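Example record

The entry below shows one chain as it appears in the dataset: sequence first, then structure tokens.
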Amino acid sequence: MPFLPDVNKKILQDRLKALNLTTYKLAKRYGKIRTGEPEENIDPRRFDRTVKQALNNPDASSLKTLEALIKAMGGKLMISWDIHEEVVTGQKIVDFDEAEEK
């Protein structure tokens, strides 16, 4: 089973309220993102169950569903790695403090 992020449903539900959206309108936005069709062509009933399930139990939803739902509410899903490596190509790093002493 793939790793899915731990998403607190309260965060999603609070965002829905803050945007003053109904699940009907959110399902239209979600459908537009998932299908690429214009929002006016989307039948929200097609996505209503998926949207409601994701809002009520995000941990049981797929990453693809959560990403589209978050995007439909004006957000983005980000991944942050625990190990950070600085990679610089085609540049020279100059320490100006060290250069002034010479």
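Notes for this example: The chain has five helices and no strands. Residues 9-72 form one domain.
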